[in-house]
Amino acid sequence: MSGPRVGCAGLTHLGLVSAVGFAAKGFAVLGFDPDAGRVAAIEGARLPVVEPELDALFAAHRERLRFAADAAALGACDVVYVAADVPTDESGRSDLAAIAALIDRVLPALKATAVLVVLCQVPPGFTRSLKLPPERLYYQVETLVFGRAVDRVLKPERFIVGCADPARPLPPAYAALLEAFGCPVLAMRYESAELAKIAVNCCLAASVTVANTLAGLAERIGADWAEIAPALRLDRRIGPHAYLTPGLGLAGGNLERDLATVLRLAGETGAEASVVRAFLDNSRHRRDWVLRVLHRELLDRRPDAVLGVLGLAYKENTDSTRNSPALALLDHLHPWQVRLFDPVVPATAARHPRAVAADDALDAASGADALVVMTPWPEFRRLDPAALAGVLRGRLLVDPYRALDADAMAAAGLDHVTLGTPRDA
Predict the structure, then answer these.
(1) Are 48 and 12 in contact (CB under 8 A)?
(2) What is the DSSP string of 131-187?
(3) Residue ranges per structural domain of the chain
(4) What is the helix (H) or strand (E) element at residue 41, kind and residue range?
């Protein structure tokens, strides 16, 4: 096998998808995780990650993938990524203890010429603090997106690499690995690269916040945000890929973590960052939009109402529930019976005292006074309006992401309420 051997330490979402992506580019890959049960499951092709196309990509390149629960196996690798997901607390603050413990396991196993690359999202200053010669230590910005991770790992826009000396060429093995992806490599000091990741997420948070704020205004003044967003995408200063679809605040954990990091660093250094606090305040307000609609339209007058909820994952095409708007909503619905369905997340994730696990979307709607679409899974978009109307007891359909066709739902006699559209539209 020609080319550098690659190690990925930590086989949760980031590490496993990265390992499969490196194998797809032709590299021999060793995946390490201290959890022997997780390693055994992966060896048996039972992947603990839900991502479109990941299982097929894993199967197609299985011959280049090995897995181990013993860090010593990393000793054969030329480039080793520390790629475990970083957990966050309720305030969005990163818990780096597990990452530090993983690095402590990995470092003694490295051969003398191996390069260590921190791929985990860490705050500025973390990489430089590690005890490894600087010519063997790098930080790389991860850009995976839940639900689109395979596409992102195979076709990155660019690599942002943190170095002790950005003017110095990358080690040959690491350079060969990055060059295989055919995209620009931007080298900068460690702290710049760590802050670059935060900067990207701050810009995304700004775009999401603008869309959410103005969509909320549109509902009140008779405008329709769905008519406005295409005009913004045609503006070269904003662009076709801008985050302009309104939603229920910032979810998933990564954006909130970086906003919390900015606020912490601003507090420690005396920098002004009130706009970042405003992003978080706006997000918390937007997350309760569905709850406000349900109380206004139904719950305040129907203490016996039954609710159907479609989707528990924080977004489609993933099983992640970190900061899920659906789970946040269900925390406020304990007095009411709810019927839950998500294609991959079990109903038990809600921890709701009156939850009923439904077999499918129509079963969740059966007998409900209102149906709420909290995750816009592709299969929900294909729901038949007449079939929905036939099983619902009530007429209220709350669909913040416009997963369902408004005209078709109205034709079926359903009262379709969505973000960014006036109530009487």
Answers:
(1) yes
(2) SS-GGGEEEE-----TTSHHHHHHS-S-EEEEES-TTSPPPHHHHHHHHTT-S-EEE
(3) 6-189, 198-286, 288-417
(4) helix 36-43
What CATH architecture applies to the domain 6-189? 3-Layer(aba) Sandwich (3.40)
Task: Give 217's contacts (C-beta < 8 A, 6+ positions apart).
Answer: 223
Domains 198-286 and 288-417 alike in fold: no
Percent helix / strand / coil, the chain, rounded to 5: 45, 15, 45
The tens digit of pLDDT for each residue in 387-410 reads: 999 999 999 999 999 999 999 999
The pLDDT tens digits of the residues spanning 38-53 come to 999 999 999 999 999 9
Residue 253, pLDDT above cutoff 80: no
Nearest to 264 by CA among 256, 201, 138: 256
CA angle in degrees (0–180, nearest 5) for 329-222-237:
85
Beta strands in 29-92 (DSSP E): 29-32, 65-68, 79-82
- The CATH number of 288-417 is 3.40.50.720
CA distances 246 to 149, 264, 399, Å, are 22, 27, 12
Q: Which fold has domain 198-286?
A: N-(1-d-carboxylethyl)-l-norvaline Dehydrogenase; domain 2 (1.10.1040)
SS3 category, 117 = strand
